[in-house]
Amino acid sequence: MKHRSFKQYFVTGLLVWLPMGITVWVIMWLVGMLDAIFLAVLHAADTLIPGIHASAEYLRGIPGLGVAIVAVFIFATGVFVANMFGQWWLRKWHGIMNRIPVVRSIYTSVKQVADTLFSGSGNAFSKALLVQYPRQGSWTIAFLTGTPGGEVAKHLDQPMVSVYVPTTPNPTSGFFLMMPTADVIELDMSVDDALKYIISMGVVVPGTPVPKPPKTALVPPPSA
Known about the structure:
This protein is of the alpha+beta class. Helix content is 51%, strand content 13%.
């Protein structure tokens, strides 16, 4: 009985701290990434500009400064490119990047993906789908990303859709597939609910109430 009590108490504590711990870990990862960008720029400035070493060392010691400066810089860039002059400058910049060999391929691909994912008019992850993968009879959740086009579409003899099948529990990696339209089932489920379902490995079922942590009253009190 004591073993059972310890297990229930442990699971209850785990359910409290696990979501908070993962949330803090993700936030710290984002903060570390922004801070690393700032430190890289600061190191480059320290190398190129003589006499800035003392100031660079001082700025490195201020916690959170890199995150604040990078966030302000990104916001200021958005404000700048929102006007006519900023749009002209942005077109010039795209033209320069598209003329550089090797860089052109990487830059263009990343830009197209970013425009699709973050643009309000994009259709990335517009619908949650049910598909058979990796074999017939095995089902998983995928996301609609569009329809095949260009040279690929010429070789397809039936209506197809482009889908992204994420991995679990990390949906940032996955597989890109082109599947017959007749073989996919559109789900009456939001993309957010589908992502929660995938990340939780099927534990958090969309449309069901969030389970409450077990009450300690269920644990039998120790005998006197």
